[in-house]
Write a structure and sequence with these properties.
alpha/beta; four-stranded mixed beta sheet; Translation Initiation Factor IF3; rod-shaped; single chain
Length: 184
């Protein structure tokens, strides 16, 4: 296996060194059907052939490298399965955006607050911003007050925490709210 290839293993190269590709003079064997310890690579290969399995280098950077006696195809299958499980259990957190104008009336703010509450309860972050068009940029204070009122409503209800204070971003003023956490 060429280690200088920055794009990973080539198409026909295995992901791990197996059998004769294990180049270390000694290896540490682990596995179910073998006495764990340090073996000469030739002896480890002999044990693998006796059991009808492969000698797979699972930790090449260890000294000596760690190898396992296992069916290589089954080993790859198990690794893919574990990766898929880890990916499925990972918490996917999205950032939902809510847009206001500097002159948004109270009914619309209440309506958007309801949506933000739902987003936060689903475990998503909410980025709320006031977008200023043309001369409405003169009302930055009004926009900041609107966002802080929006954020304080959600914080007081206990569904959010302020993750980012109001921040000017060109023609926008934005805040970021994160879910408060699971109620246990």
């Amino acid at each position: 296996m060429s280690t200088n290839n920055r794009f990973g293993p080539r198409k026909n190269e295995p992901l791990h060194r197996i059998n004769e590709l294990v180049v270390a003079p000694e290896v540490r064997l682990v596995g179910d059907n073998v006495e764990q310890g340090v073996y000469v690579t030739a002896k480890a290969l002999e044990l693998a052939y006796e059991q009808g399995v492969d000698l797979v280098e699972i930790s090449p950077l260890a000294v000596p490298p760690v190898c396992k006696l296992v069916d290589y195809k089954k080993f790859l299958y198990e690794q893919k399965k574990k990766q898929k499980e880890i990916k499925a259990n990972a918490v996917k957190q999205l950032i939902k955006e809510i847009r206001f104008g500097p002159n948004t009336n109270e009914h619309d703010v209440a309506f958007k607050t309801k949506h933000a509450r739902e987003f936060l309860e689903d475990g998503n972050k909410v980025r709320a911003f006031v977008f200023f068009r043309g001369r409405t940029i003169m009302y930055k204070d009004r926009g900041i007050n609107l966002l802080m009122g929006f954020a304080n409503t959600l914080i007081d209800e206990g569904v959010a925490k302020l993750e980012m204070e109001p921040k000017h971003e060109g023609k926008k003023v934005a805040i970021l709210l994160a879910p408060k956490g699971k109620k246990g």
